[in-house]
């Protein structure tokens, strides 16, 4: 199976332009799974709740979804990415994975980062893997990375490949994901963005370095810190079914939860 990421630099607030550029970047890609960053079609540093609200769309019904659905059909691939999801009065920072038949899987970021807490609702969808082409996938969004419980929960529930959509600003996750891959025996596809955004006195630099890890912590692909890039690698998701790390040590069965703090 082929999996890949699109390292991208959206223009804040311009969905049409971002979708047009994203489409141009991926038009000749051959893959089974292609992962865009968090909020890839809108940008990240919203001026205020009104701007965010003007860019949000319901899951499965809006410009961002329709574009992803078309790309999924055209490339015959699972297309994954982030969007601001409107659900009634609430707006979630969501990940969506769209299949070629337009069926989709949704996840709402559980762990909101910094100023996101003033704009988005906290996620309320369980960490549940889904199946695509015989492999099990889990979705995570950016700051979820600092909570190893999120990866562990998805892995224990059967995820073989975690698709991690990001707008990383701290400099740790690309390296920390090495440990998350090994300790859970999973593949990780981390799709990050690049570039800068500024609003009033806030300025953010996004760190790129999108990366794909094998369950043994091997780097299968790594992007630059400052260029838009598309990368695709071949993986064998069933490599993530073997949780034996030595002849006598199993990553999950050797756990001692009765000694751990909840
Ligand atoms: C982040 O969670 N977007 C840093």
If you had to describe this structure to a student in words, what would you say it looks like?
- By secondary structure, the protein is α/β, with parallel strands linked by helices.
- Helix content is 20%, strand content 32%.
- The protein has helices at 15-26, 49-55, 63-75, 148-156, 173-184, and strands spanning 2-7, 33-35, 78-87, 90-98, 104-108, 130-132, 135-141, 161-165, 187-191, 194-199, 202-207, 211-213, 219-222, 229-234, 244-246, 249-250.
- The strands form 4 sheets. The chain has a 6-stranded mixed beta sheet with strand order 5-4-3-2-1-14. A 6-stranded mixed beta sheet has the order 6-7-8-9-12-13, covered by helices on one side. Strands 10-11 form a two-stranded antiparallel ribbon.
- Strand 1 (2-7), helix 1 and strand 2 (33-35) form a beta-alpha-beta unit.
- The longest helix has 13 residues, at 63-75.
- The mean pLDDT is 98.
- The structure holds acetamide.
Question: Which topology does CATH recognise?
Answer: Nitrilase/N-carbamoyl-D-aminoacid amidohydrolase
The number of domains: 1
Class, according to the CATH hierarchy?
Alpha Beta
Low-pLDDT stretches: none
The helical percent reads 10-25%
Distance between the termini: 36 Å
Separate helix tally: 5
- How many individual β-strands? 16
């Amino acid at each position: 199976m082929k999996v890949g990421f699109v390292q991208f630099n959206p223009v804040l607030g311009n969905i049409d332009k971002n979708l047009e550029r994203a489409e141009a970047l991926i038009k000749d890609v051959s893959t089974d799974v292609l992962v865009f960053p968090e909020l890839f079609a809108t940008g990240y540093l919203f001026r205020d709740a009104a701007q965010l609200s003007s860019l949000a769309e319901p899951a499965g019904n809006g410009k961002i979804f329709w574009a992803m659905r078309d790309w999924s059909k055209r490339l015959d691939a699972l297309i994954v990415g982030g969007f601001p999801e409107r659900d009634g009065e609430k707006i979630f920072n969501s990940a969506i994975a769209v299949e070629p038949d337009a069926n989709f899987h949704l996840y709402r970021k559980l762990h909101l980062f910094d100023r996101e807490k003033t704009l988005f609702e906290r996620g309320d969808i369980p960490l549940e893997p889904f199946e695509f082409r015989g492999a099990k996938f889990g979705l995570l969004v950016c700051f979820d990375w600092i909570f190893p419980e999120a990866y562990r929960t998805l892995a224990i529930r059967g995820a073989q490949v975690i698709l991690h959509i990001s707008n990383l600003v701290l400099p740790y996750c690309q390296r920390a994901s090495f440990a998350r891959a090994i300790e859970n025996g999973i593949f990780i596809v981390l799709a990050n963005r690049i570039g800068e955004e500024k609003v009033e006195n806030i300025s953010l630099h996004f760190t790129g370095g999108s990366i794909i890890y094998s369950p043994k912590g091997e780097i299968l692909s790594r992007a630059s810190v400052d260029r838009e890039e598309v990368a695709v690698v071949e993986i064998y998701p069933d490599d993530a079914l073997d949780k034996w790390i030595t002849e006598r040590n199993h990553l999950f069965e050797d756990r001692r939860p009765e000694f751990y703090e909840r």
